[in-house]
Design a protein that fits this description.
Structural class: mainly alpha
Distance between the termini: 27 Å
Largest sheet: none
Number of strands: 0
Shape: globular
Order of helices and strands: HHHHHHHHHHHHHHHH
Length: about 475
């Protein structure tokens, strides 16, 4: 990979490249977090049930999670700037469709299209940084990107809540349009084009198709089965989905250039870290879905208040995640990755006790503070362990796999737990049971860490985004950049 004129950090052009990357990824992160606060308003407008709200979230996670690695590969082959711009334009178009949706079904389709576009934006933003900046400046550029992304995500609950309460949930999507326009103009003017010059780069279309069909079939069956869909349709979806997932692993094992190199999982450290990711982010996915809805529906919070209720998590991670990463470098990742998920489990048990009449200071804040502490201890060591468990050539693809694992974990958790716990019939009881199950999942993540992660391990120093769900960017062929969140 080569850039005719590599960008220096601190120059005018370097700042513009950084702004383009922050805007692109920030738009995707913003929609990923703000939509949770909009769910009660969407439910009122469309008279939607829990299953429709599930699809509003899972449609986005489904397409994004299954196409993230493919999105990075497209940038490698056809040009990272080009694919990034196409992703921005696609995201704007899908956002407009979300804003003008007249039914929950239309919104779900538009959200799926948003996820497709986000699959180009999320890996593309960091690929732009790693390919545009000089080698000696890439770490500083990614660190600056991390901080700016953290600030943007911290502001998201306030911005989204204000728009929802003062005007409409539709503005949550409309606001993307001017941001996209600015990002496209900056990218086309200031960001250099780059692609992978190595021979043999191929797009694993069959792998992407089988994974997408597999996840879609299984998720449909998990959501629509408990909601009362036709038994025959549900069974057919489950069978097709299961068969496609099996086919995906067969395809990847035989591909010369697989989307997901299965050989990476021969590393016990890599496999263990990704299992921890699945467990912890499954717990977080169901928690962020339910807590914001519960606060608005049953405790009378406004959208702004519900979004702001999560702010302590972001604040604690902004302050302490870097320190946690430094500590893990000194003592190894095993202890932080064991203790952190267990602390998350305790936090979720505290949050499960939120009920009508509970005050924020006594009932909500303690759980948020403990959850922020648990994530601050967990996230940076987890991401660094994923990267340190593979060789340099595979760092980019490793971060993409880990990022996809976090998305898929949230996707499956949101699809499964409402049906298992009966949220549609009794939200209060289902909420408490779901949070207890999520707590158990988090603790299981800690146990997996203790079993699979080595005590003394040379964890790489990796910049991180101390916000919400995992957002590792990837340049799937050139691995200089990877970020955890």
């Amino acid at each position: 990979m080569s850039v005719p004129d590599p960008v220096a950090f601190g120059t005018a052009r370097g700042r513009w490249v950084l702004i383009a990357a922050v805007l692109g990824s920030g738009i995707a992160f913003l929609d990923g977090s703000v939509v949770n606060a909009a769910l009660p308003a969407i439910a009122r407008d469309f008279d939607a049930g829990v299953d429709a709200l599930q699809w509003t979230l899972t449609a986005y996670l489904l397409t994004q999670g299954s196409l993230l690695v493919l999105g990075g590969s497209l940038g490698d082959l056809y040009g990272r700037r080009r694919v990034f711009v196409y992703g921005l334009i696609g995201f704007a178009f899908a956002s407009l469709l979300c804003a003008i949706s007249q039914s929950s079904t239309q919104l779900e389709i538009a959200r799926a299209l948003q996820g497709v576009a986000a699959a180009a934006l999320v890996p593309g933003s960091l690929a732009l940084l790693s390919s545009s900046f000089r080698v000696e400046d890439r770490g500083r550029a990614i660190g600056a990107w991390s901080g700016l992304a953290g600030v943007a995500t911290a502001a998201a609950p306030f911005l989204g809540g204000f728009l929802i309460d003062s005007v409409s949930w539709r503005l949550v999507f409309v606001i993307n349009l001017p941001l996209v326009l600015i990002a496209v103009v900056i990218t086309m003017k200031w960001v250099p084009e780059s692609r992978d010059d190595e021979q043999g780069v191929r797009i694993d279309v069959l792998g992407a198709v089988t994974l997408s069909i597999g996840l879609a079939g299984v998720v449909y069956a998990l959501i629509e089965g408990p909601a009362g869909a036709s038994t025959g349709v549900v069974v057919a979806a489950a069978v097709v989905g299961g068969a496609s997932l099996v086919a995906f692993f067969i395809v990847e094992a035989r591909q010369e250039h697989p989307m997901v190199p299965l050989t990476l999982f021969k590393s016990r450290q890599f496999s263990g870290a990704n299992l921890v990711t699945l467990a912890v982010y499954a717990a977080l996915g169901i928690t962020t879905f339910l807590v914001v809805v519960h606060l608005q529906t049953n405790l009378g919070y406004s959208a702004l208040e519900a979004g702001a209720a999560l702010l302590p998590i972001t604040f604690i991670m902004l302050v302490f995640s870097a320190r946690s990463g430094a500590l893990a470098q000194r003592i190894g990742p095993r202890l932080p990755m064991t203790v952190g998920p267990c602390v998350v489990g305790v936090a979720l048990l505290l949050l499960s006790r939120i009920e009508p009449g509970t005050s924020y200071v006594d009932g909500v804040l303690p759980g948020m503070v403990v959850l922020g502490a648990g994530l601050a201890v967990t996230v940076a060591p987890l991401t660094a362990t994923v990267l340190a468990s593979v060789d340099d050539h595979h760092m980019g693809i490793a971060s993409a796999i880990n990022n996809a694992a976090s998305r898929i974990a949230s996707l499956l958790a949101i699809a499964v737990l409402p049906g298992v716990t009966g949220l549609s019939e009794d939200f209060d009881a289902g909420y408490q049971q779901s949070l207890v199950i999520a707590a158990v999942l988090a603790v299981i993540g800690g146990i997996i860490s203790w079993i699979t992660i080595r005590t003394a391990f040379p964890v790489r120093s990796v910049p991180h985004v101390p916000v919400g769900p995992s957002c590792h960017g990837s340049d799937t062929r050139r691995p200089q950049s990877s970020v955890a969140a």
